[in-house]
Predict the structure.
Amino acid sequence: MSEFLQQLINGIAWGSIYALIALGYTMVYGVLRLINFAHGDVYMVGAFAGFYAVKWLGLAQEPTIFGAVAVFLLSMGCCGILGFVIERGAYKPLRKAPRLTALITAIGVSLFLENAGQLIFGADPKFFPQIIAKKDVISSGGIILTNQQVIVLGVSLLLMVSLQLFVLKTKTGKAMRAVSFNREAASLMGISVDRIISITFVLGSALAGAAAILVGLTNPKIEPLMGIMPGIKAFVAAVLGGIGNIPGAMLGGMIMGIAEVMVVGYLSSTYRDAIAFAILILILLFKPSGLLGGFTGEKA
Amino acid sequence: MQFKKIIFIILVLGFLLLVNYYVPRRMNPYLFQILILIGINIILAVSLNLINGFTGQFSIGHAGFMAIGGYTSAFFTFYFGRNLVPSLTSILLFPWLAKSVIFVSALILGGTLAALAGLIVGIPSLRLKGDYLAIATLGFGEIIRVLILNIDAVGGARGFADIPGYTNLFWVLFFMLLTVVVIRNLINSTHGRAFLSVREDEVAAEAMGINTTYYKVYAFVIGAFFAGIAGGLFGHYLMYLHTNSFTFMRSIEIIIMVVLGGMGSITGSILAAIIFTILPEFLRVVKDYRMVIYSLILIILMLTRPQGIFGLKEFSLLTIRNIFVRKEQVAK
């Protein structure tokens, strides 16, 4: 039982990271109807931005709370800017093109970031320094809960709740929902669609940057190709919860994280990548709109 | 007419045998390998074009079908085929004939199993469209890969080594031509019109009495069959298979060929398969920047020519003639 609880804790911590990445997918998909394949690679760039920020601030030797927050914000900022550049440079010219074209362009951007990453950062894995020293908060009855896991869960919940409030309560959030509902009608109502799309990209990418630093805390190995699999799985998580739906992305991310950790714990680590897709196919077959998505008939 | 056709086929086969005899002796092995890979990529691109381009479904799981075909046929030749060679030789007199019979049956077996997988993957297309179908096929492709990774009889994570090297230029060109001819004829038949109608407007097609589900699954099955054959050729050429060759990046490479060649243009797919097999080799001169430039070319091509090189059009000698004729008419 204690082993199961331990796996559950690890799964929730891992799932909250998927959830953060999934939010970026879900937001972009909501406004643009585009699977932003480059999102996973934005997350990778976030990890490296954090890595160099730690070096630059000299935090590896003496970790401080302020330093950790600074690294966090720097990484989110870098990712936000990158998201903006990608949207303006690669996706904006294709607003009127068929969706497949935009998808292939997204794949191109993803390949570009991966290969440019290998060129700039080097292909070998790097070790993300411990910016917050590891301590056990609870360690009894065979269960270990570290302060890092608490931080991961706390920070991601905080970000998700603030995002939800932003989307539901602010004017920009309202405009975002309007654009995702009907782009033409929104622009007729005086909403600057391009601006909203850019804001969405910046927000989503910043969340990927946050996820990258949280991953750096618990799984410190970073490399230029680290974004591919988490990227796809986070998209699966978004679909699982109901795409375009923020609480859905959180739920989907948690389910994915827990399922994956359980499979690694009780079956075999080689099936780790298969479980995500097996869940996805089952969901698509039985409830294509996702767990929290409304009924829309066939998904177009 | 029938007689003429047979003569034509015999002439083509004779030509392929001649090519198969002379080219490997005259060409350096590096270029020869690229030539083989071009052939295999053409099979993959044209078969995926049937699903993505002509039927308008969006599959990113082609590498999965390829893996099934490759591993099945390799399993067959490795465990049964090799032991059958002596006994078959005593019946068919020539060892090469026996090997060919075994190889072709292995490929067809691989293709059939891949087609079966296509049937299974095709069924969700009853419910899913667009991006959802794309992500589901991606999932199927990855599941197939992970399952193969866990089968010890085909090497698992070590990879499947010592596959007999039966693939030669003749078989690659033969199956390449077969794929192109079958899919071209299929598209120009009554069935082909049905495929196109599903792509153009599914609701209208259904209203006209076309069983859209049937045609979607049909496209998946045929496309998967040829992808399986391509996988078999690939495995028996490299004599080694590893699941890392069949990740979703492989599927994406094939999609890039289809989209940049023009969705719905067979000649476009062929040209794009040639270009995108040669381009990464060509870019070896720039060393480390190779893949960066490759991806930049992809983005720029997509931004400047989103409909692909040929769009929906087919390239033929008639097109060239038409261009000249039109110019003359303008001059008059």
Notes: Chain B touches chain A at residues 58, 124, 127-132, 134-136, 138-140, 142-143, 146-147, 149-150, 157, 248, 252, 255-256, 259-260, 263, 288-289, 291-292, 294-296, 298-299, 302-303, 306 (CB under 8 Å).
